[in-house]
Here is the input.
Amino acid sequence: MKILLSSAILLIAAACPAIASAEWSYTEKEDLMRGVTNRWALIASKNDVTLKQPYSGTAQLGIQIRNMPETAGEDTLIVLSQGPIDCSFKHCIVSVKFDDSKVRTYRGRPMGSGLAGVIKLEDQADFVERLRAAKRAIVEVSIWRHGPEQFVFEPTGLVWK
Here is the structure.
């Protein structure tokens, strides 16, 4: 199943044009001005959710790990294909269960305004380490005017340095 991101999220998410696959996909792009290679890894949730008004249709969640050495550094983004993730202007809360472990809470910052479809995680190193070791991850985010939703990932096979 392919769900194209809105143009606003597309600009924020940079080189990943779609939440396209429940398996890891990888993109590399040369930054000719800075002489470096920018890298992205993206995985989509295995499920989607049907949104209530004011949205219509379904939404899928993506996890994007990116390394942009000369601009953003290495970070992890949580990307909702439709609708904004409900965050305060200071931080967002993302709850994650890796395999059978206890639920962990990660803080993030909205990319753009407080109502954005993209969250940048604060403790991305811990998140990526646990994601790499997991066979299954359930990620819960609160969607503005909709409430909390859970998205299932099978992140096995992540190749990331």
Summary: The chain has one domain: 3-153. The longest helix spans residues 124-133. The chain has two helices and 13 strands.
